[in-house]
Description:
five-stranded parallel sheet, 6 helices, DUF218 domain-containing protein
Amino acid sequence: MGVRIGNLLNRVAGAAVLASILLVVSTGLAIWWTARQDSRPASDAIVVLGTAQYNGVPSSFFEARLEHAISLYEAGVAPVIVTVGGRAEGDEFSEAEAGRAYLAAGGVPEDALLAVEEGVDTLESMRVVSTAFAERGWASAVLVTDPWHAMRAQRMAEDSGIEAESSPTRQGPAVQTRATQFRYILRETAAYLLYRVTGESVAGAPGIG
């Protein structure tokens, strides 16, 4: 009897391990697949997820996102570009402010820019953007971020009440090498699964958060 119970427990444990592995693998593949998509329907706004900036100068990750947002704006995807992201401790500029200044310098009209200067992670950023959308009667957005971050960002935007699609960047440090891509996919897989289980966000490395 004891042997049978032991065998049953071993099978249950084995099945649980296999299910966990399949969940991780399928999530990683979904992140990879989403990263390869480029959805750009006509929307109320283009939303650029903030990341590191240095004294008002966007990092290379952030610059890649902003340049992609300019191309979407010029293609007529939306009449407004929203930058989002707060200040880290000691920073003089917020991510949203640095992004807005970069876009203005790049030729985007002032009245086509909105900086939402809050948000320390993706989830908080999506929530404050959702509030800004509600105040203006907007509903739909095209999200601009790094490819591997797109699926989590889109999920969090939708959970915050935004009709979201994603148009990830196709340049910048996040896509330079296969090793870099693999590392970010692994990190995003963990972050996405944590969000689905806990409903909480995590602060990521530059280019991910």
